[in-house]
């Protein structure tokens, strides 16, 4: 989990910086506000696509998304157990 966190910590700000730099070179007539807005939207779009992809992978790997647990899950940590305690 820690390498994934470190990778995301480097990837998304790096993508923002790369996009801002590229827009400064390709569109010098744009203001800094325009470049930041476009860069932010691009990074948000990439993050949304990656989150959607990971959600699809998770959904496809479970037979029953609501009660399905990973190999390390216990009854106490499942969504089913949490919802049955509320009733």
From TrEMBL:
Keyword Transmembrane (UniProt): yes
Organism: Sapajus apella
Keywords: Membrane, Transmembrane, Transmembrane helix
Protein name listed in UniProt: TLC domain-containing protein 3A isoform X2
Transmembrane segments: 6-23
């Amino acid at each position: 989990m820690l390498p994934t966190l470190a990778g995301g910590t480097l990837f998304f700000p790096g993508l923002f910086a790369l996009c801002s730099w590229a827009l400064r070179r390709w569109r010098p007539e744009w203001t800094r506000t325009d470049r930041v807005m476009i860069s932010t939207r691009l990074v948000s779009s990439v993050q949304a696509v990656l989150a959607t992809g990971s959600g699809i992978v998770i959904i496809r790997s479970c037979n029953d998304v609501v009660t399905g647990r990973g190999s390390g899950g216990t009854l106490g940590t499942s969504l089913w157990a949490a919802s049955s305690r509320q009733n």
